[in-house]
UniProtKB/TrEMBL annotation:
<dbReference type="GO" id="GO:0008168">
    <property type="term" value="F:methyltransferase activity"/>
</dbReference>
<dbReference type="InterPro" id="IPR006764">
    <property type="entry name" value="SAM_dep_MeTrfase_SAV2177_type"/>
</dbReference>
<dbReference type="GO" id="GO:0032259">
    <property type="term" value="P:methylation"/>
</dbReference>
<feature type="region of interest" description="Disordered">
    <location>
        <begin position="250"/>
        <end position="279"/>
    </location>
</feature>
<dbReference type="Pfam" id="PF04672">
    <property type="entry name" value="Methyltransf_19"/>
</dbReference>
<protein>
    <submittedName>
        <fullName>SAM-dependent methyltransferase</fullName>
    </submittedName>
</protein>
<dbReference type="InterPro" id="IPR029063">
    <property type="entry name" value="SAM-dependent_MTases_sf"/>
</dbReference>
<keyword id="KW-0808">Transferase</keyword>
<keyword id="KW-0489">Methyltransferase</keyword>
Length: 279
């Protein structure tokens, strides 16, 4: 990617989690600093690209599940650089009237999403920070986003592989503010790497790499991840290892799921779940 083209708001010498993730997935929207940082992560944790692919596969399965459950609107926070099988492609492929708002703190990710969505009146992308839920909700109530998302109707709130970039109690409050703002019938979708499964030394090395980005992170335990569903009822099979969440044998997942037959699902080191808001 040509840094000149994107140079408006960003420093290409500071690695970004969004662009490192793009590199893990084989994308081209990353700079040398991102690639170098991503390679250091792979050195410490060789399964990093596998984790990214398995996570994308979970995201697609969860979106299909929600559309099948009647959800037609999606708020994808920490959406990342668009890649193959984006939320609007999955949802609108099933129902062309499905609505999607992408949110990310990374201007490159959002700029690329905006280009991809040009001419798509049912999807848009905005730069915002999950840690500022009031500002985010305010943005969603403005004309451009209100035309896409109707907050009085059910929404699929996606916080997939992003909450570990936001350690601390404040993240629970921010996520709760968003869950509370949604209508009954809404769902929350979370995946999160957990300390229960990731080698402590590898985790320390990986955290050191991410400390150089704008979004340094940290792991949580499974019980801590469960708190992101407070007030929502987990749908079966509950909070499980990513490959175990309603696996299917669709061709687009086969390439992304762990190809090794009988591989330990803990290898992915990440748990995932979907919770629904009743009442
Ligand atoms: C690993 S990517 C995940 C992308 C996508 N959700 C997926 O699962 O494929 C994490 C994303 O979270 C974004 N992010 C980190 N902190 C954020 C924040 N406070 N608000 C919004 N997005 C954030 C990063 O910029 C990055 O694009």
């Amino acid at each position: 990617m040509d840094p000149e083209y994107w140079a408006r708001d960003i420093d290409p010498n500071v690695p970004s989690a969004a662009r490192m993730y793009d590199y893990f997935l084989g994308g081209s929207h990353n700079f040398e600093a991102d690639r170098e940082a991503a390679r250091r992560v792979i050195e410490a944790m060789p399964q990093a690209p596998l984790i990214a692919r398995a996570n994308r596969s979970f995201l697609r399965r969860a979106v299909r599940f929600l559309v099948a459950s009647g959800v037609r609107q999606f708020l994808d926070i920490g959406s990342g650089v668009p890649t193959v099988g984006n939320v609007h492609e999955i949802a609108q492929g099933l129902d062309p009237d499905a609505r999607v708002v992408y949110v990310d703190i990374d201007p490159v990710a959002i700029s690329h999403a905006q280009q991809l969505l040009e001419g798509n009146t049912r999807a848009t992308a905005i730069v915002a920070d999950l840690r500022r839920p009031a500002e985010l909700l305010d943005l969603l109530r403005r004309a451009r986003t209100r035309a896409v998302l109707d907050l009085s109707r059910p929404v699929g709130l996606l916080m997939v592989s992003m909450l570990h970039f936001l350690p601390g109690e404040g993240t629970y409050r921010a996520a709760a503010a968003l869950r509370d703002a949604l209508a009954p019938g809404s769902h929350v979708v979370v995946s999160h790497p957990v300390s229960d499964a990731i080698d402590a030394r590898a985790a320390t090395e990986v955290e050191a790499v991410y400390r150089r980005t704008a979004t340094p992170g940290g792991l949580r335990t499974r019980a801590e991840v469960q708190r992101f569903f407070d007030g929502y009822a987990l749908v079966p099979p509950g909070l499980v290892w990513v490959p175990e969440w309603r696996p299917d044998d669709r061709a687009d997942n086969a390439a992304d799921d762990d190809g090794e037959p009988g591989a330990d699902p803990r290898r992915v080191g990440m748990v995932a779940g979907v919770g629904g808001k009743t009442g």
